[in-house]
Write a structure and sequence with these properties.
By secondary structure, the chain is an alpha+beta fold. It folds into 2 domains: 2-59 and 119-259, Alpha-Beta Plaits (2-Layer Sandwich), CATH 3.30.70.1890; 60-116, no CATH class. Helices cover 29% and strands 31% of the residues. The protein contains 8 helices and 16 strands. The strands form 6 sheets. A 4-stranded antiparallel sheet has the order 2-7-1-8. Strands 9-14-11 form a 3-stranded antiparallel sheet, with no helix packed on it. The protein has a 3-stranded antiparallel sheet with strand order 10-13-12, with no helix packed on it. Helix 1 (17-31) runs antiparallel to helix 2 and helix 5 (90-99) runs antiparallel to helix 6. The N and C termini lie close together (9 Å).
Amino acid sequence: MKKIILELKGSCINLDNIKISAAFINAVSLLYEKSTFKTILDAMKTGKIRFSSAFPHGYLPKPILFLPKNDLEKAGFRVKDYKSLRYVPKKAIDYLKEEGENKYLEELKNLSSEEVTKENIKVQNDLRQRKVYYVLSELINKVDIYYEAENEEYDKFIESAFRLMVDLGLSKRRTAGFGAIKKMKIEDVEEINKPPYILLSKSLVSLRNPVKSYQIEELMLRTKNSVIPGCFVFTEGSVFEDKTLFGGIIEEGELYLTSTYSLIY
């Protein structure tokens, strides 16, 4: 597993693996000839290249685990404060895998959800310099996107595509300051291959996989000319008992293609 670290010019709102995969496919289509594009597209369609959603730098989605109220209170948490957390430090997840729930909670006890997830951000519109938008946004000015590629040859395509995205941006709202990228780099990720296994991507629901605890969301994906309804996905933070690949692609003719394959830490 590797991660792409993006420093953003503004902020980034709800940048999930579905949007990232679609942006990657678009960038590859602009960079490469038809035969190379088809090779990469086939890898996306079969789950050989998979992306996570974007998370604040150094953080992962909070695992959807049942933690007894007594354990939370013993660690110094009010239940509602723990529930309000959306992201937790990656090192806390590593403690959870290596040493269990008590050490995980100990790592979290001084963490405020407001420091991580919400803040009023002033965003300057790039096109109309006279207008300034004030929004309640996730405070994500530096993000981590994790990925796995079955073949090392794919790494060069991924790096080239994301370097193009530095120029293109990652959001349809980049002209309002969202998703415009300042710079990027790619790093290897040290994985702890022990349960609990945490889902890092929105992935089409499959009940063939042993699910420990999960949350399901219905997506309404919009293309330029239509809406794709009824896509049910496991959300980031869902917990599985193994790392078996599941999910698939969402395709709407030639108008829209994206991946919802699972990426599990």
